[in-house]
Amino acid sequence: MTAYAALERLFARLRALGDAAGILGWDAQTLMPTGAAAGRAEQLATLRGLSHELLVAPSTADLLAEAESGAASLDAWQAANLREMRRAHAHASAVPGDLVEAESKASSAAEMAWREARAASDFAILKPHLEDVLRFAREVGRAKGQALGLAPYDALLDQYDPGLRRARIDPMFDALRTELPDLIRAARERQARDGAPPPVAGAFPVAAQRAVGEALMRTLGFDFERGRLDTSLHPFCGGATGDVRITTRYAAGDFTRSLMGVLHETGHALYEQGRPAAWLTQPVGDARGMTLHESQSLLMEMQACRTPEFMRHLAPVLAGAFGADGAALDPDTLQRIYTHVAPGFIRVDADECTYPAHILLRYDLERAMVDGDLAVADLPGAFDAGMKDLLGLVVPDDAHGCLQDIHWPGGAFGYFPTYTLGAVAAAQLFEAATAAEPGIRPGLAEGDFRPLLGWLRANVHAKGSSGSTDEIMEAATGRPLGIDSYRAHLRRRYLGEGVAA
Amino acid sequence: MTAYAALERLFARLRALGDAAGILGWDAQTLMPTGAAAGRAEQLATLRGLSHELLVAPSTADLLAEAESGAASLDAWQAANLREMRRAHAHASAVPGDLVEAESKASSAAEMAWREARAASDFAILKPHLEDVLRFAREVGRAKGQALGLAPYDALLDQYDPGLRRARIDPMFDALRTELPDLIRAARERQARDGAPPPVAGAFPVAAQRAVGEALMRTLGFDFERGRLDTSLHPFCGGATGDVRITTRYAAGDFTRSLMGVLHETGHALYEQGRPAAWLTQPVGDARGMTLHESQSLLMEMQACRTPEFMRHLAPVLAGAFGADGAALDPDTLQRIYTHVAPGFIRVDADECTYPAHILLRYDLERAMVDGDLAVADLPGAFDAGMKDLLGLVVPDDAHGCLQDIHWPGGAFGYFPTYTLGAVAAAQLFEAATAAEPGIRPGLAEGDFRPLLGWLRANVHAKGSSGSTDEIMEAATGRPLGIDSYRAHLRRRYLGEGVAA
């Protein structure tokens, strides 16, 4: 067996372990009895520990070196696969095992403290834990940065989005920082003239909501032979290769958020279900990174499923499922509900227009923390000042401020920017897709997503990790990731620019 | 760290991997989308392969030898734990890795062929696969027998029930073979005088059946903080340490089998939930073996929950859940339904009285196959002859004969006897329990299982694998496993012997 073939076997094994962890993680958030949490943590830690041991074993380094020396005989996908193997190995071996363990334990403790702190809106409960987590994250950033030749924050970014760098983000986020306040103000003035959309009211039984969600998942192209829809406190897309499981949560008095959440997670799931079939067990068969992953969820949720076209498909579906309460929601009303702009404190509740402000703030703060320019003790004040600055809101307490997200307590520094970069990519991809495939927009009104999904499959999903995010974007849209399409999309949808009256 | 302590760490890791596999196996039978089967098989094979590698690693043998040389410093539980570690290692290391893999693949292929063969009632479809599986099972039996100093069939038995030997089984099964036909005939004549119990008829909505099942699980003592009840095609008790999951299946027109299935699996689950808390991650904390495991399910299902006392508790529960259809079933009718004797072709549908005949037949056949005295080609004929002999039934086709069970295609030779040994142990334990705790029988009528569960916890569950099956039986009942109590139980329940008129 060649060194490369031996590596393929090793990584298939790692994939199987990762998939096992994926199902166990899904179960923990959906069905697991409460008393089983400690045992499940042990199972997941064991799987992760074994995976790490296999990946950083001396034999793996030897195989990588040998395979790289014989790389001339590999085809393009194999060569890309080998690059991704090297990348995974570099990340894993850059950090000493005891630091991995210490960081993992600190994050677990901080997540538990965070739940308590948020419930009590008491930052002091979280503070010492977050200080630990930040210290370890900075150490990890330094260690990986040294190994990869990157600045610490770039090394952290690279964990979630291979190749993503601060220098790539800053120009886009700087432009947004300049333009966003005016856009939000103008959008709100325009909507104020029309008045607020009517409140959604009625009885929307959970079983009917679920049926609508499943029906729309099928409409979008979700394959239920290789996935499920379930319920969890925090919606997510998880599971395993060939077994992609999304979740939502239901409120019997208002289906709107739950339903859009299903469409969002379905976008993630379609990416997973569309990964290149021949490479499913290999790193090159992975989704490229969190920017493109979020682009797929937001392309479905924001670009495709908040269009007037889709509302024409959605309205009769809702009328069929919810009777008179559903029929009250005509396409125009649905569109107004689903594009209503209203600044608020909570990121996950934010509308499309104000959402980037939440990310800009977190990006600034986490860079400053990683760079050592912002102490954890000063986080609440800095957070609140940023909210005032960006959205004009006075944060009433830390639960509505810097305690709202689990990311930092969980150790995920470098993740937040991918939300808005995903929105940016979604706009660029949807623009290119609709230009290339004239059947896409009319299809949305007919509940025919095949033209859209076909384009995404060919131009994004089936690419796996064979190229960088920018290479995939450029091949799909003619240019690397940039904010022009996103800016145009927001101005069109919220200011009416470039739309025929 | 001492060698013993290092072994505890290793076995805790193996337990975590086994628990992960337990949840993944549960998921595969309850929720997994059909297209995910191949990926799941890969995940499970990877977990098993890694566990096997860790267990048979040279360092493990070194640690065992070192720990055994220092065993004088261990307390009784640690010493028993070390014995169990050695046992696990001996079983695992006796079989070369390629044989493990070959056997596993042959079993997977045979299980798939079996589904097809059973559906078509065509033994020819299974035959070549079963020949492969049997060949590998015989090889495994020889290899383990050599390593453990046992005959091949004893080595196979030992996999499922440590310490169980053919010489221990034969006297009990020989007696049953002699007595059972007369017992069945006499029981049927006695029941014929009373006429058949009325057919169960009515509407028994699945949701209500599920609620009854959960309520009775709580009554028996099941802890829903550490377990679940779900639905699967084939009922089972699975899951993980501290996360014990049982399943049943429902028929809307007849709740009786499903409900008794829940009580059976609850018996298994209570054993798992009652394992010694301080040793949950260690081999000595395991349930002792399949005989005692089945004894716990059958003690609940057959001994406790088919008594006249329990029927007095059950009848009003059913009336509350199913209205008039439930109220039609008074305690006496329920008791007649649940103790009705009727020979049939299918083992899993058999009543308590005829069930052992199915096991005696399988025991004879599998010993003969393992010993090389019965060729797979001759299995159908031998099976049918045995059914005629033991139950007087003419098997109409192989689906109702030798194709009905998955055990042999799955490679489980040496498992069947534990079903009847479990019934034997259940009778002996229940007799001892009710003699020791006068509150047990009245408790059954009140839905108060605490006296019974308390006795089982102390005398069986909390013993884990600290002693052999016979040691646990002797400590609990005053004598090793034997059929006296079982015989007396059957004669009492089905012939009315020793029961006040």
Instruction: Assess the beta-strand content of chain A as a share of residues.
Output: under 5%
| Unreliably modeled segments of chain A | none
In the sheet with the most strands of chain A, the strands line up as: 1-3-2
Mean pLDDT score of chain A: 96
Radius of gyration of chain A: 23 Å
Task: Outline the structure in words.
The model of chain A has no long low-confidence stretch (mean pLDDT 96). Chain A has a three-stranded mixed beta sheet. Chain A is 66% helix and 3% strand. The longest helix of chain A is centred in the middle third of the chain and has 29 residues, at 166-194. Chain A has 21 helices and three strands. The first copy, chain A, has helices at residues 3-30, 37-56, 58-69, 76-94, 97-120, 123-148, 152-160, 166-194, 206-220, 256-273, 290-304, 308-322, 324-327, 331-338, 355-371, 379-391, 417-436, 440-446, 450-459, 469-477, 484-495; strands spanning 227-231, 237-240, 243-248. Chain A is globular, with a radius of gyration of 23 Å. Chain A has 501 residues and is mostly helical. The first copy, chain A, has a domain at 3-159. The first copy, chain A, starts with a helix and ends in a 6-residue tail after the last helix. Chain A binds chain B through residues 12-13, 16-17, 19-20, 23-24, 27, 31-36, 38-40, 42-43, 45-47, 50, 223-228, 240-243, and chain B through 12-13, 16-17, 19-20, 23-24, 27, 31-36, 38-40, 42-43, 45-47, 50, 223-228, 240-243. Chains A, B: One of its GO terms (biological process) is proteolysis. Chains A, B: It comes from Lichenibacterium minor. Chains A, B: Keywords: Carboxypeptidase, Hydrolase, Metal-binding, Metalloprotease, Protease, Zinc. Chains A, B: Zn(2+) binds at residues 264, 268, 294. Chains A, B: GO terms for molecular function: metal ion binding; metallocarboxypeptidase activity.
